[in-house]
Amino acid sequence: MAMPTASRVRYALACAALDPRLRGVLLFDLEPALLLGIGHWLGSLLGNPHPYVLGASAVANTAWTGLASRPAFGVSPGPLVDKRGAPPLTVLVSDLARLSLTGQRAAIALLDADVAHLEREGLSVTWAPRSRWVATCARADVGRIPPHLLDRFPLRVNAAGLHADLEPPAEKWRRALARGRLATMPDEVAREVLDRVPAGVAGARRDLALARISRALATLGGRTRTTNADVRRAASLLRLPAPRDRGHDAGSGDGVARERYDPEAAGRAGRRGGEEPSPSARADGFNVVAPAPAQPLAPSPVSPADPGGPYPEDDTEPERDPGSLRSPTARHSSSRPSHGRSVGSRPGTFGDLALVATILGAAPLQARRCEDHYSRPPHPLHLIPPDLRVHRRSADPARLLVLVLDHTCRAGWNWLDALAPYLQWAYTGRAGVSVIEVGAAGVANELRAQRFSASSLLDPRVVRALERPVGRCTPLAHGLDLAVETLRHRLHLGRIPADDVLLVIVTDGRGNIPLRASATGRLPDHVGSEGVEDALAMARELSRMKRIHAVVLDPGPRPGAALTRALAEACGARLQQGGEPR
């Protein structure tokens, strides 16, 4: 009988509290409103009921360092640094797929690590991480998480059916946690663990996770030795598929019928004086037949895939490159400083002054610079030039892809094939993306184009834009007008001009909405060719811009194909025929 969702979540949290090597808990498809209650539940079991929420915009300044007023005013370790003698902290991650780069690095540094170091703002701290991390993630977003970050979460539970707060922890669990002794694992049980984990997986993290969960479940049950039943319960908690019957392999076509491995029998044989089985006994254990002719091997899973299994990354196409935890290289074409999001500070005297970091750096030295600083009435801080610090900011993307998508020209061809080289260019170069949609269905006003900006091609809105249904109107002139505005802001009024800008326009050139209709939101009685003429006028505005590469994708032969050629000539773009017909 399957374990209820609430029971799986409770047991997973209890195992994490019991074994410090199971510090990462990943809950798939959890209702966001339940995460804080789960944090309080785990915190009450650990003795620290106040969890720390690590949001998607977490920065290093608040996570690693803080401000202390006692015994003296100065910099103190932040919430992610475990306090000596204090109960472990519960760290909550609302969405692991959207966690900031700083938060991902913190998880990598603290989870599954024996020692952590902090060298920041004059602090030098070394500690043994004990904090427990509880993260949520939609199963559909697993491809956006780096594999080495997913490996830090050995406890994986499908929490889609959880709709209420958890029951309080059992009293025997608190007693087991207070004892602090984990159940031992005999060799035959360890063989059962190896038999339960699918073969062909690199590394031993999954084997260790299942073994540690089995020991924790045995300890929670009040036992001192782990049994095969505990391993089966651990596999049920994770929803691991049952091992395939290795004796029933007649239809595999490999010519060899293999016996089913019995860990208990193997354990009994191994304890019988340590004798090795005779060659005849080993031969009797297998039914060897003549090998069949060689056939190409096809990959096959150990057992049928479970849609609620703990490792969806095995069947999910990764949506990010392996080096995604590394900041992209900044290439500045201007002497102006970066105005990206602050990710720290560094010593400096001019430019983007970091006031808080400057004050925090100078505050511990006030008593040394002025003996009466704290005894006299409050007076200004004593600052010297070495105290000044400036922001260290994340670099804006040095490349930009501007996509103008005319949804009304999608019929009869696959525009994803034609767009693939340009999307690959944006992905490998970590370019910023600006998408302008023309003629999409379900928008607030069909007479106007829609626009949004994304930091990279991995933004889910980009995928939705490429698959948007077709609408009835084609405000191509307004879409090109938005492209002109976007490029002007980035190239001239933006904070960092783009070094490489690629403009891709996918259209058949048939714009049936004039620019004045898009501005007023009202369709005139007679349109004629006004929409096409307005689109050509906006295209000529694009041709006046320098340092951009423009491409117009033509859907292919059709009546009125000259409109696309005229549009490409007007904006000085290269005309490219679209992909293969559907």
Set out the fold topology.
Layout: H1 5-18, E1 24-28, H2 35-46, E2 52-54, H3 60-64, E3 65-68, E4 74-77, E5 90-93, H4 101-110, E6 116-120, E7 123-127, E8 132-137, H5 147-150, E9 155-158, H6 171-179, H7 187-196, H8 205-220, H9 228-238, H10 263-270, H11 279-284, E10 342-347, H12 355-362, H13 366-369, E11 389-393, E12 399-406, H14 415-428, E13 432-438, E14 450-454, H15 460-466, H16 476-493, E15 500-506, H17 515-520, H18 530-543, E16 549-554, H19 562-570, E17 574-577
Task: Give short descriptive properties of this protein.
582 residues, Rossmann fold, single chain, five-stranded parallel beta sheet, 19 helices, alpha/beta
Overall description:
The protein is an alpha/beta fold. Among the domains are: 5-180, 3-Layer(aba) Sandwich (Rossmann fold), CATH 3.40.50.300; 342-393, no CATH class; 399-577, von Willebrand factor, type A domain (Rossmann fold). It is 32% helix and 15% strand. The chain contains 19 helices and 17 strands. The strands form five sheets. It has a six-stranded mixed β-sheet with strand order 14-13-12-15-16-17, with helices on both faces. Strands 2-5-8-1-9 form a five-stranded parallel β-sheet, with helices on one face. A two-stranded antiparallel sheet has the order 3-4. Helix 1 packs across helix 8 (205-220), helix 8 (205-220) crosses helix 9 and helix 18 (530-543) runs parallel beside helix 19. The chain starts with a helix and ends in a 5-residue tail after the last strand. Mean pLDDT is 79; it is low at 245-305 and 330-337. Residues 237-347 are annotated as: Disordered. It comes from Streptosporangium oxazolinicum.
